[in-house]
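Workshop exercise sheet. Pairs work together: one partner reads the sequence aloud, the other fills in the structure field after running the prediction. Swap roles for the next sheet.
Pair: D.N. / O.F.
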Amino acid sequence: MAIQSLGIGSGLDVNGIVSQLVAVERAPVQNRLNRKEINIQADMSALGSMKNALEELEAAVGKINTASLYEGRSASVADSDWFSASASSGAALGAVEVEVESLAQSHRLQSAAFASADTVVGTGTLTFSLNGTSFSLDLDAENNTLEGIRDAINSADDNVGISASLITGDEGPRLVLTADETGADNAITVTAAGGDGGLDQLVYDPGTLTNLTQVREALDAVAYIDGVQVSSSNNVIDGAIEGVTLTLKQAMPNETTTLTVARDAGSVTSAMSGFVKAYNTVIEVLGKVSAANPDGQSGALVGDPLPRGIENSLRSVVGGLIGGEIGSLADLGFSTDVGGKLSFDTGSFNTAIQDDPDGIAAVFSGEGSLSEELETLLDGLVGVGGQIQARTDGLNTRLERIDDGRVRLANRLEDIEARLLKQFSAMDALVSQLQSTGSFLTQQLANINNITNPSSRK
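Structure field:
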């Protein structure tokens, strides 16, 4: 509060003067620190862009450095309306003829029509059996209607795989039982015991009594592969052809279509395209952050040896000799432009992988491969303790020093402000004292004049 009184004696804006003097002290140091911070943040942003691009390249290299990629198979069907097919790595190459004789279907039974859904059917015990397992329902006055039996079946905790529903036609509702799973082994049987005998209306036991109507037979799927019969409880045939899975869609008895298993060049080509794209992105980023542009904004790392060193290392690996029958990537449809970017002729590559799949796998996957060499290089750049992390850690340390510099500046400015206020306070007090003394002397001189000049008092 004492500071607010400064300037009363001198008439000067002491606080304003001190603030301006402190600002003059602050400006050059603060500007220097700000410039350093901006430059460091620009460097960190450039390093971040490089790191992101290199990590994308590392992921793309990881995909092509996978042995199973080159063992992949594709399965195609001449008439895909009949069935679809997939093939796993290592499936035998070639073609077979397939006939889909029948599709698997689930067992379905239907009762006679009842007057209404709340018609009482009967009391007693119903036992439902399916594929060697069974469950029973005790029906009494609380659940002995048609809809009550439906709900009891669907809510049974030990239900073995039977769903119940009502279909209401012109003659009234009917109870429909459907096996949840397809296949000949999943046929439903229903027996009744005890009670008033009304539940016999729902019995289905082909060996004794069949009061329910079989709407759909429980059947396995049947197909012929090169004339060999193959059956399945569902519409998926797995293992009949090693490594190949067929999913049946439509039965076409006495007709065949061709299933062909070939090398999955498409997946390899896609992975290679992803590698080329990621590689070119790295080249673009390295060029951008290190570009010298006298007419505009230069890259943050212009003149820095790191981007150029990374680019040279990548070019050395990608453009180097491979050895063996495949001398270089150029033999596989790769080429490099004057800017260092890769291009990729998918046609040439597809031909090469069909002609020498093992040779291409050796180039891009496993020990001593080009991919392994790239992964080692990239790990040294973006891995833990890599060059980019080391550089980033150094920049973070410099940012911490700038923060420390700002703290020291603030402390120094506080001292300067306190010193200036003290000096101006002393000056203000001195001026006030001088003014007081001057006023006193002026008054005394006036009194002397009055004494020596009596006429002045008339």
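Discussion prompt: The first strand starts at residue 73 and ends at 77. What would you look at next?
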